[in-house]
Amino acid sequence: MCELLGLAFNDPVSPGLSFRGFRQRAHRNPHGWGLAAITARKAHIVKEPIHAARSDIARTLPDRTPLAAPVFIGHVRAASCGEVSLENTHPFTRRVRGSDFVFAHNGTLAKARLGSRSDATFTPQGSTDSELAMCQLLSWMEHEAVAADGYASIEAFLRHMNAAGTLNLLFSDGRHLYCYHDEQGYNGLCWTHRRAPFCRVSLRDEDWTAELDEEKTPRQQGYVIASKRLTDGEPWHEFRHGSLMVFRHGQLVYGG
């Protein structure tokens, strides 16, 4: 089924609390995990084609320093298309317009219905429907010269792509975090807004409680996105079906 994790903040943050709970969801998604720390200059991606809860790297990753960025994309995989391998493990990335473009997908798309593009600038390295979808999105953006702030056009393209199956996406150009929720509401996608005054939260997937004001500075603010809510003690909101939300510098700039 796969699950997604996204962080979009105004300042670099650690993914520690969110990833700590998120990696436990590998029990239902055992075929790989990945986490991308994304800045405007470069993305640092760690991923393995193994069960995240059994990975020493995944277990110790939240405590590593310095692991901080304003944008993160995480994924745990239940393989539905493509064998279990490193090249088929999310997130995927390409270098685009001087930045690392990072992409992760939850759902299943019929490759035959995705079709092929005669103007394809980007081609898959693995065999998943997800990487093919990323390449088609990027090829379309390059061919049509779609700007990073062409939100309505991007949303329309994703809705068209959604006709090929089930589609939940997180992707980033290093400055924005784009989040699209499937038109039928497949598997869920939700968000919470973190800003001062911070509250006390507890993880839903692990016996762990945190005082957010001890982890955040007063000026930090941003959003956490997940397939299913990660915490109790703070409000979570569902995405609208078939909709795109875009975050930049810790602010919602499109959708909602």
Quick structural overview:
The protein has helices at 16-22, 56-60, 111-114, 129-143, 151-162, 212-215, and strands spanning 3-13, 33-38, 43-48, 69-76, 92-96, 99-106, 168-172, 176-181, 190-194, 200-203, 209-211, 222-226, 231-232, 237-238, 243-248, 251-254. By secondary structure, the protein is of the alpha+beta class.
List key phrases describing it.
6-stranded antiparallel sheet; 16 strands; Glutamine Phosphoribosylpyrophosphate, subunit 1, domain 1; 6 helices; alpha+beta; globular; 256 residues
Describe this structure in words.
This protein has 256 residues and is an alpha+beta fold. The chain is built from six helices and 16 strands. The protein has a seven-stranded antiparallel sheet with strand order 3-2-4-1-12-9-14, covered by helices on one side. A six-stranded antiparallel sheet has the order 5-6-7-8-15-16, covered by helices on one side. A hairpin with a 5-residue loop joins strand 10 and strand 11. The two termini are 25 Å apart.
